[in-house]
Amino acid sequence: MRSKLLLCAAVGGAMIMGASAPAFADENCPRGSLDTLYCDVDGDLVADSPTDESKWKDPSTLVFTYTPVEDPAVYRDAFADFQEYLSKATGKKVVYYTVQSNSAEIEAMRSGRLHIAGFSTGPTGFAVNLAGAVPIAVKGTPDGFQGYNLIMITRKDSGIKSLADLKGKKVAHTSPSSNSGNLAPRALLPDEGLVPGEDYEIVFSGKHDQSVMGVVSGDYDAAPVASDVYTRMVARGVVNGDEIEVLYRSPKFPTSSFAYAHDLHPDLVRKIVGAFHTYRFPKPMQDAFKGADRFYPITYKADWDVIRTIANATGASYDRKGLDAMAAKEAEKKAKKK
């Protein structure tokens, strides 16, 4: 059996200590990309609720967390009102558990110590496949979920009117590790008839705003950038949107997902889902989350499709090897800060 992370943390006056990992699922059940702990009979790409009712969990205290950030106290406080709402909806005590890394958060749900969590966009795939997480919502508004797109921009007077016109041109990507600035165009543009690095020359600008400014100044013929960065630059008057043409806009990339553990009692799940879908953010929470005022309903199968496409095209794998690699990078990053 795979190694388990032993988490110790004071939560609501109680110590969360080691617990045994869940039993393996039927080896013959369909599971797609899911770990052998889980089954996916209905084909929705997330772990099914256990068929054995004795494995349904109905804890007296629900442990909740949000994706790790530089200052965890900021979001612990931001979610305080929602935790109270969730407590009333479920009849359970709800406590906030601060995690130190994405990999630790995933291991906590996998081992049964975490019941509800917000996972970052990329780590959501690991949480689904390795921890049995079932995403149900992202932050949003009545118009849709909070997210951003990859857009390919050029100057309106450049003579470039379509992606096909970029062949033989110089295009600024931001940096090798950037999603919308490099990985997403490499994954998505070939289906549009344009292969980055083959059909056009790639130069790296370093940042999204530098790519935008480089296009405006004529240093680059075009650039793939994050739509939210571009929109903010236009709103601030840094660039004139009337001078820029958007040649391509990708499907929207979701921000952090909110998910519950697959083995919670179905009656409890209904109360949790209901709380997420009916809660409305108070003003301080809206300010903390850039104007989002609710949890917008989503499904992993439909709304994370573009993220999975990018991961597959760039060789990323939402499996144990991929999680271990992410954990190693997190540890290296943390060590450099010391």
UniProtKB/TrEMBL annotation:
User: Where are the membrane-spanning stretches?
Assistant: none
**Family designation:** Belongs to the phosphate/phosphite/phosphonate binding protein family.
Which keywords accompany this UniProt record?
A: Signal
Provide the Solute-binding protein family 3/N-terminal domain boundaries: 61-283
Q: Which Pfam families match?
A: Phosphonate-bd
Record has Signal as a keyword: yes
The name of this protein is: Phosphonate ABC transporter substrate-binding protein
Annotated signal sequence range: 1-25
InterPro entries found in the cross-reference section: PhnD, Solute-binding_3/MltF_N
